[in-house]
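call fold(seq) -> C-alpha cells
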Amino acid sequence: MIIRELLSGAPKVKVDAQESPRADYAPSWGYSSEAGERVTVAGSQSIATAYRAKNIISDDVAKMPFKVIQKFGRGTIRQVEPDPITRNMAYLLQISPNIWGWTPFIFKKAVIEWLLFYGNAYIWSPVIGPRQLLILPADRTAPVLDLEGNLWYQHTFANGQTAYIAAVEILHLLINPDSTGFIGRSVITFARETFGRYLAARKTQSMMFSQGLMPAAYIQMNGDLDADARRKVRLAYEEAISGTANAYRLAVFDNKVTKFEPINIQLKDAQFLESIEATDRDICNFFGLAEHMLNRGKQAYNSNEQMYLEYLTGTLDAFLVPWEEAARIRWLPAVEQTSTYFRFTREAILRMDSKARADAMAVRIQNGTMTPNEAREKEDMAAYPNGDQYYMAGNILPIGGTNERNP
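ret:
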C-alpha cells in the first residue's frame, strides 16, 4: 500500500516497446536444463553450496559500514555524520534506511541477494514523504524507454497494476550486463546447467534412499497380463521391498512368475553420484569464492589477511565499487558530486588478529598517515589530549614542529 501511495502522482508514460531493453529474469517456473530439472531461484538456493555462497557474499557486504565522505581540497576530508532531523544519506545508510525501521545490515544484504539471483537491484528514493530508501522487487521492475528516449522504471504491483518511476529516483545496480548495458543477468542465467545437474543428482540419490536401495528389476509372468494386472504385480513388489523400513527384505512370488531379474545398481557402481560433487567446484567459480570458504579443499594461505584481501579485491569489489559510483550519481545533487562521495569501509572485512592490527596502526602513526586519536577511534576508544598530532619516522617528532605540550 505504501508504495502505491508514493506513486500516486506518477505520470502516464508511453513506452517505446521496440527500443526498451528486455529483462532476462528467470521465469517463475524456472529455467529448463539439459538434466531435466527446472532451475528456479528458490531451487538453486536449496543447493547447500549455492546457499552458503550467497550468504557469504551478502553477509560480508552487509557488515561493511557504508559512509558518506566530504573532501574539501587537500586539507579537509571528513565523514558526514547521521542527522535524524534531515534524514540525510548518512542517516539512511548507517542508522535506518526507511520508516519501517530496517537496519543497514538487512538493507544491504537484501540488495546483494537480488543482484546475485536476478542480476539487478532497484533502490528507490521517493520524492514524496520522508526521505527513505526502498527496494523494489527486481522480478517486477524493469527499465523502459519512452518515445522520446527518456529512461523510466516500470514497476508492476502484485495486483497487476503498473506504474512508472523517473530514473532520477532509482539507483539501479546490476551484474553481468547484457549487450545494451541496461539489464543485468544473474548467476542462475549462466549456472543453470550446473545447478540442474546438481538438482537431478540429488533427486536420484533421494529416490534411492527412499526406496531402501530397492533394485530395479523386470518380472516375466506365465501368460498375458493386461495393464491393470501388470500394475497390481508392480505394486505388490514395491510394497514388499520399497522404503528404508523394508530394505533387504525377502520378496516372495507365486508360480505364475517364471523369471525375476534384478537390475542392480551397486553402491560401488553408483559412484557417479559422488562425481556430481565436482559441481561444487563449478558453483564456487560462478560465485567467485575460493573452495575452502565453502568447506571444500584446503586453505592455501599463510595469512587470513592475505586470503581476505584477495577475496575482497577479486570478488567483493565488483559489488562495492559500482554501488559507490552509482550512489554518487543518484543520491547527491550535481553541485555536491565533486566534493562528496560514498565509501564502504573495507577494513571491516579484513580479518587481522589483534597483534597484526596493532602493528599496522603503529606503522601508520610512525609514518605520519594516522594520528593516535584516529587509531583509537578505530578501536572505539576515546581520544586523549594532544593525540591529534601527526608523527614521522626518525626521532618520532611531530610534523612541522617540536613535541611540545600545550599549556
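The first helix runs from residue 2 to 6.
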